[in-house]
Amino acid sequence: MVNAMTKTNVVVLFFSCAILGVAAGPGVGCFTGGFKPISGFLPKADSAFSVTFDSVNFQNNDFEVQLRDAIAAWSNVSGSNWKYNFAGFTAAADPHDGRVNITRGTNPDPFPEDVLAATYVRKSLSTSRIIDSDIFFNAGDPINSDPSHIEFDFELIAIHELGHALGLDHNDDCVPTPSVMHSTIAGTGALPRRLGAPEIAAVQYLYSGSLTKGVAAAPLEIDFNGLHESDPSPATKSIAVTGGAWTASASTASSTNWLAISPTSGSGPGTITVSAATANLPSGYYSGSIQLNSAGDSQTLPVNLNIAAPALRLSASSLAFGAVPGGPTPDPQSINLWGVGNRAWSASVTAGGNWLKIAPSSGTLPGTFAVSVSPSGLAPQNYAGTIHVTTPGATRDIPVQLQVAGQSSILVDPAQVSLTDQTGDNLGVVCGATRVKSFGNAPLSWSASANAPWLTVLTPSGLSPSKLVFCVTAGKMSPGTYAGTVAVASASDGSQNVAVNFTVVPGPEVRSSGIVSAASFLSGQPIAPGQMVTLFGANLSTQSAQASDFPLPTELGGSRVLIGGLPAPLLYVSPGQINFIAPSGLSSVAGSSTVLSAYTGSLAAPAARIDVANQSPAVFSVLGNGAGAGAITHQDGTLVSSLSPLQPGEAVSIYLAGIGPLDSPLADGAPAPSDPLARALDQVRVLFDGQDAQLLFAGASPGYAGLDVVVATVPASLSRRFPELVVTANGVPSNRTTAGGASLLDVSPALVSTGSDVEVTLRGLNFSPTSVVQAGGASLATSFTDGPLQTLRAVIPARLLGSSTGSLTLTVADSAAPAEPSSNPVVLTVAQ
To answer: Which residues does 235 contact at the CB level (< 8 Å), separation at least 6?
Structure first.
């Protein structure tokens, strides 16, 4: 029998290179209730995590049953809005699919001795939110759903590892009695297969309505099932919403917008009605989601729609033909048939006359038959007919209309066209077109004219059927939507209008000093080839999108970035921000400058000039704002913080960008290799409070693009617990961060008025209960609150506000340790 303290479960942590916004991370101490979050990891942004099981080891057996029980244990915590969703089976884990893949024997790293399972938890480097978790069972250890005295309890291990996937660490030092998140397990599972009080408290804290400013929803997932194609739309369903003010929006994974909600905003307890418009949808599985937002936090509620195939499906439910006496015979129209299996079908004309014909009249599914009409000899009027289609188990009737008109008339298709151009683009011309046809396909002469000065007709006349082309030019028109008309006239039949909607949009623009390192956000710094860069501006994209795989795309969400004419691999795009990797080809212009161009579709921002250097090192920060505590980890993957400071002589990893040329050049947009490692060519130094650390490695972080890492040994003696950190590459210094020092994110309110004392709230990390706020040379007492983001409340005297000149700089220091570095500053705007 293996002793209870010899088998341990470990968590291996990785960073993600997706830089999406401001980051934060919980401390490493024990929280009320006896649980401990993983250091530096915030809960998953939404309230659901999809789970897949190993199809080889965990399908159609007792293991599958126990895995379902394990995910149900975490999904049924009272007072939490959390849920694990079973999403099917998988052959292998995918670290980028945003799911929890549970597999056995395919761990990407060798299992250390005495390790039963490992959970790999990935987060966004900028938001610190969990974005993916994968669980690997050690194939070399004896696990069983009903363990003997020499086997280990599979369900207990599964519950434990799913806790890691949610962001929980081992709680050995938090509770006197072992619970599920204890790091050790006996061979037969001395712990019960259920969540203990610490785990329940953790879920309620990390995934509760209170975490999202009190807004919560139930149910967390909507399913529309039991539907068949051509059935009426299903009955609406309801979501109960509680909490503060909220907004909601619906989206679908397909181009068909079948999902609708009402209302889209509210406050306090309310109900969202969810409806699915299925009348025109073919059979299949459809997915959508409802985004519920409150005070900056959001929940994603999946919506699933399943429409079963009918016994018989037709490509059209009705047909219409048109003809004129003496004109051409209308072209035949085809009906496609689908259904179940290779069943026989037959079709016949059951109403109408000899003018309506079909061929062939029978066959096996799937099949096709043609419908034709013969208007010869028919007087001008409307004729109706019916085609009856049958197959075992189903029948369909297709109405057919034939209109015989006394004379032909002009038709335009489409009758409405929407065009878009960029304001201020004097030379840009955008064109559209419509088809000019005639009833009964009789050729008619036509002419066209426009009624707006910005609208030009390029084909003013023709003979139907033909194409009409028209163009628009924005010139100096103000942003907005304009309406114009192209009139198409025929001498024999009046006219038809084409409605032209012209939208003038503000073009993309790059903010002044808006091209910065994604790590430091410092303006005025050159960029280096291979560096992760952030571009700030306006109208940079029509949507938000994130790269999902390697190699990184050079077009994402319709946006592109060219530097010196070279396409930049893109990590993330949004209307106000683009994150990209500087192309390696910029090395040819290092030491000079080049031009950056940003494109939204075909619209280009005015070119911006940027400086290029071989090296431009910048250290990422924990808060993602380029200041305060740096992204520095111990060798077990936990963040260096105020609760887990540097230890003399230990090796730490420092994450940065712009380290410079590598001994193994990387293809643009490709991840860095792990064997061999890509090392920095030039000298790299790490200084803690000006003291050199022993360098162990400097180069590209394996598995990522644009992310560098430096591994160094902390000096044997340091004058401060949280020293200032600077990394230099070939003599070029990085931004200044600290190793675990106080870090400020923001201040609220950000704008205050003079004349009276003002209470402000500062958010950040690595604060101590003895923290003070430094403002205008004064040290102000604070009220301290712990949490994933710590807060300090302080009262700023009116005298300090009255003496400021439009702004007041605030920093945080520890009154009990005055020698430690102060935090990065935040600025409070003061209105006189």
So the answer is: none
Classified as helix, coil or strand, 668 is coil
The one-letter amino acid at 136: F
Both structure tokens of 66: 């126990």
**Would you say 645 and 742 are in contact if contact means Cβ atoms under 8 Å apart?**
no
Q: Residue 570 contacts by C-beta under 8 Å, 6 or more apart in sequence?
A: 547, 552, 553, 554, 555, 556, 559, 560, 561, 578, 579, 580, 581
Rg of the chain over CA atoms, in angstroms?
33
Binned at pLDDT 50, 70 and 90, residue 17 comes out as very low
Which tokens hold the place of 388? 């009856």
Between residues 34 and 3, the one the model is more confident about: 34
Q: Comparing C-alpha atoms, which of 33, 71, 22 is closest to residue 624?
A: 22
pLDDT in tens, 806-828: 889 999 999 999 999 999 999 99
What's the CA gap between 706 and 702, in Å, rounded? 10
Higher pLDDT, 125 or 227: 227
> What does the alpha-carbon distance between residue 687 and residue 648 come to, in Å, rounded to a whole number?
14
Nearest to 817, CA basis, from 770, 780, 765: 770
Overall average pLDDT of the 358-367 stretch: 93
Among candidate residues 325, 346, 326, 324, the one with its CA nearest the CA of residue 337? 346
Q: What is the 3-state secondary structure (H, E, C) of 616-636?
A: CCEECECCCCCCCEECEECCC
CB 67 within 8 A of CB 59: no
- Alpha carbon dihedral 540, 542, 546, 548, in 10-degree steps, equals -120
> With contact defined as beta carbons under 8 Å apart, do 781 and 792 qualify?
no
* Continuous H helices in 401-523: none
Number of other residues whose CB lies within 10 A of the CB of residue 280: 11
Q: Are 261 and 272 in contact (CB under 8 A)?
A: yes
Question: Can you tell me the mean pLDDT for 419-438?
Answer: 79
Q: Taking Cα atoms as reference points, which of 308, 389, 310, 391 lies closest to residue 343?
A: 391
Percent of the chain with pLDDT over 90: 45
Q: Which residue has the tokens 């070399």?
A: 140
In Å, the largest CA–CA distance within the chain is 106
Count of helix runs (H) and strand runs (E) in the chain = 4, 64
Are 324 and 443 in contact by the 8 Å Cβ rule? The answer is no
Cβ(362)–Cβ(336) below 8 Å: no
CA geometry: angle 770, 43, 654, nearest 5 deg: 65
637: Cβ contacts below 8 Å, ≥ 6 apart: 11, 12, 13, 14
Mean pLDDT for 506-512 is 84
> 550 vs 17, 604, 667, 669, CA distance in Å?
12, 26, 11, 7
Distance CA 450, CA 163 (A): 66
Q: Is the Cβ–Cβ distance between 14 and 96 less than 8 Å?
A: no
Regarding predicted confidence, which is higher, 304 or 487? Answer: 487
Cα 15 to Cα 297, 638, 672, 705, 707: the distances in Å are: 22, 11, 14, 12, 10
Joined together, the tokens standing for residue 233 give: 């739309």
Q: Which of 1, 145, 158, 14 minimizes the C-alpha distance to 73?
A: 158
pLDDT band, very low/low/confident/very high, at 6 (cuts 50, 70, 90): very low
**Average pLDDT in the 276-299 region?**
79
What residues contact residue 309 under an 8 Å CB cut-off, 6+ apart?
228, 229, 283, 338, 339, 340
CA distance 156 to 55: 20
- Contact indicator for 15, 631 with CB cutoff of 8 Å: yes
- Least confident range of 102-111, 258-267, 585-594: 102-111
In the three-class reduction of DSSP (H, G, I as helix; E, B as strand; rest coil), residue 745 is classed as: strand
| CA distance to 99, 161, 179, per residue, from 155 (Å) | 20, 10, 14
Q: Which whole-number Å values give the CA distances from 223 to 53, 121, 216, in the listed order?
A: 22, 29, 19
pLDDT of residue 295: 63
Q: CA quadruple 657, 658, 659, 662: dihedral positive or negative?
A: positive
